[in-house]
What we know:
Distance between the termini: 39 Å
Helix content: under 10%
Structural class: mainly beta
Largest sheet: 22 strands, antiparallel, barrel
Number of strands: 62
Amino acid sequence: MKIFGGVVVMLVTLLCVVAAASAQVAITGQITGVVTDSSDAVIGGATVEVSGPALMQARSVLTTAGGVYLVAQLPPGEYTVKYSAEGFGTVVHSGVVLTAGFVATVNTRLTVGKVTETVSVTGADTPVVDVQSSTTPTTFDTTLLQNTPSGRDPWSTLAQTPGVTTSTFDVGGNNSYQQSSMSVHGSKTSETVYAFNGLDLNGPSQTSTGFYVDYDSFQEVQMVTDAAPPEVPIGGSYMNMITRSGSNLFHGLAAAYYLDSATQATITPPIFKGVPVSNAGSPFIRALDATVNAGGPIIKDRWWIFGAYRSYDLKQLLLNSPTRDAQGNLTGGHGTDVNHQTNTTLRNDIKINSKNQLNLQWLWNYQNRFFRRNTTYSYVDQAAAYVQIEPAYILEGQETYTPTTNLTIDSRIGYMQVVFPEYYQPGVAPQTIPAIDIGQSTLQFAGLMNYLNKEKVGRAASTVSYFLGSWKGSHILKAGVDFGIARNYVNYNYNQDIFELYNTTTGTVPNLKPWQVWVQNGPTLSNTWAHMASFFAQDAWTMNRHLTLSFGFRFDHSHAYLSPQCNPAVGVTEYSPLFPNRCLAQFQAAGNPLGPLTKYSNVYTYNNVVPRLSVAYDPTGKGNQVIRAGFNMFTLNAGTSLADAVNPDGPAYAIYGWNGSFIANSATPGAANSATPDYTKFAPGCGTNALGTNGCLAGGTYTGPALDGAGGYERTVGGITTYIDPNLKRPYSIEINVGYERTLFSDTSIGVAYYFRATKSQFAPINVNAPTSDYTAVTMYQTGSKAGQPILNPITNAPMTLYNLAAADVGKAYYELTNVAALNNNRYDGVEFTLSHRLTHHWQALVGYTVQRLRGNYIGSNTSSASEDFNDPNRGINRYGSLDQDSPYVLRADVTYQAPFKIQAAVNFQHETGFAIVPTNAFGGLAQGSETVKVQSNGSLRYDSVNDVNLRLSRPTNITERITIEPLVDLNNLFNAKPITAETTTIGANFQKPTNFLGPFVARFGCRLNF
């Protein structure tokens, strides 16, 4: 009841604060055109009536004095358009197919005659090219969603969008429980929005979603990418998922899909240094996916309902997850990944009156991952995996108000709550601490943390559209506002508040000594908030049936802050001097030689105005071809992520180099490490540092060599040593596009386009206590067992220059997140060829081939991480090269063919040049301890290119006129390709050892009942 009450309060508050709020993306299409007579003179006052099964009632408009008409707010579907005028015969144009955001231009000529004389037009005149919009979203309609073999989740489906690259490669659903980062035409992977029915419901960070969806509940899924209109906030991957609705005719689907180890090929392990790699790959044990949905009328033409339920179980064997006994010895077994998901969807469509229509939705998701491996390490023991039991739900409401045929007000409101935990395995004892070996990329004994994240997002939206058809052409005027609230509540706690870090190339952890130990400030309770508000306006001005100019702008406001909060006392009492401040107020009151700390009540405030300019030119005026060009700017997503990064009540770590006696019982880590640590090595000191006497972050002195580094305190990282530049600017991207698209023949279009993108004002951390001038170039190791020996590149064996930090700066870490000019040096160029064919004449196709390059100064995916310190010249070595998910050649092809004897075949082919490998090496022997350095430029090495062919064979059989049963089989990775998709990138004995590859061939069997 308390939770429900909070939801109601938040929704009411949003409605009260914003009478009409948040610009949203279209979930409907439009039909427009010009009505003329046989002499090509325009006909004003003609009646245009649109009807179809997706409409509760037919819609009628009159043409303007210029003969122009527009019928807006048409749900996706197939329509019939009837044209009539006094003294002219009637023309009926059928088969007009609309997807979300598509503007179908249908120009019609009436001939003199009786109104009762009707001419029917179908087929070749159905528009397949949008000649008015700056861009056309890639749309996966019901046919593509249901007939294309895929992982049956948004990530594997949208990976088929031309120009999109994804971080994972799905075979039969083997990655359906792990979201994939996406990039399109050089966009940052953080430029991602998950929209449900046109409403942005990203998580609080505004870069991802914790909500897993019911794939079969969608009418269509559209991907809005480049040259997006101003109602779209970003220039990357905007995924708009539109739920099915009821209709006047009862309809539905029941389906089940199954595969197991018996239907997949035996894994052939890759070869590394002449030896088969037996600990790579994640073959299926079994997968069962069952779904049922139905929709229909409660009151015909007035009230429709739709409901759906899905249950999905997936179990995989993880060959890279060894099992161990209590002493840490290998047992020869392998870990598993066990997952369960259920979804429930309910939708109501209600026609209040002829001018008002209401849509209410509830989406529920229960996501269970019993062995989630959410780390960057390649080999994670079963005991070190997390338990994720995640409930989530979405509430949405939409009202469409049409006071006149030319004016529409579309208002929406939504709320999402996700509870996302990552808990220790039930068998992990409180004394057990994790052990990481970065040399072998392993995590053993326990996960890194107990974690609970509660996400809440409220959003409201409204757009006003007005059609003006009689001033120097026609105008579609739009304006909208945007308001959202996001809260991110995170709780961390850690076993013993410590973990061990190793850097080895051989041997097993129980027989080695640590390289570093990280002391944690657990437990922590952090609470961050973000408010978002936007306004946009646009005029799409069509002149002389040829030229459409779309000019507009978008204003974006984003504000993040921290509410008053405190952390509990440090879990291990002896560590408390390392983290003395446990309340936000203590940090605000602390003296600081750099000036006031971050104003936590206002972590950042962004106010940005960006233009959206584009032109669409139809050379013939027949609506069958278009030349497009655009200049657009997009702000990058902003949410709570920056506030999370600087929250002093968030996670922090004091890092110590191994000095020979840190842990009393060092020979037996993990579960056996219940022995008391030797706390004398902490000797907290409150010497001069950025946080003054209030800091007391560091302690200890260097007591001797530790492998190739120094023992004792090295540095502290986390929110307590991080602040934001008060003049921080919001990152943005500039995009230019030029393209040509035309109708090739009936229901088929082809296109070619060029895209340019540059991302500016990116930010990264700099350690203000260690300026670049305090580093000295060295070619010899300075400390440790290699002191005095030359520094050599471990790949080329050539001499290498590193940079030694002045002793006075060591350990004095205070990071400022600031705009870094060096990151402006980036550029994307791409040329893309596309072909699209609707399902007519027994076939359907969506094909895209992209040739592209993305180059610039590299920064990791976590731009707030201290590991990216731009003051440290060691991090700048080999920084320039391929960026992000740069893949020079990308081919996507989905083709469906309805063969004789009712046999249907669908092929999904994906080619992608392998991503760049960034080889790194941890160099010790420097005053500051270790430095992780890129030892080759990004892109000098790449993973294997992926060529993945998936085939579906099915045969629908009509039981009755309206009931169809369809058995099917999906042959995933048809040719059993085995490209390497992940390797160990840390230099050592395991460098470039394969850790994952494309999943083996697997057959999935299914059966669908449509009615």
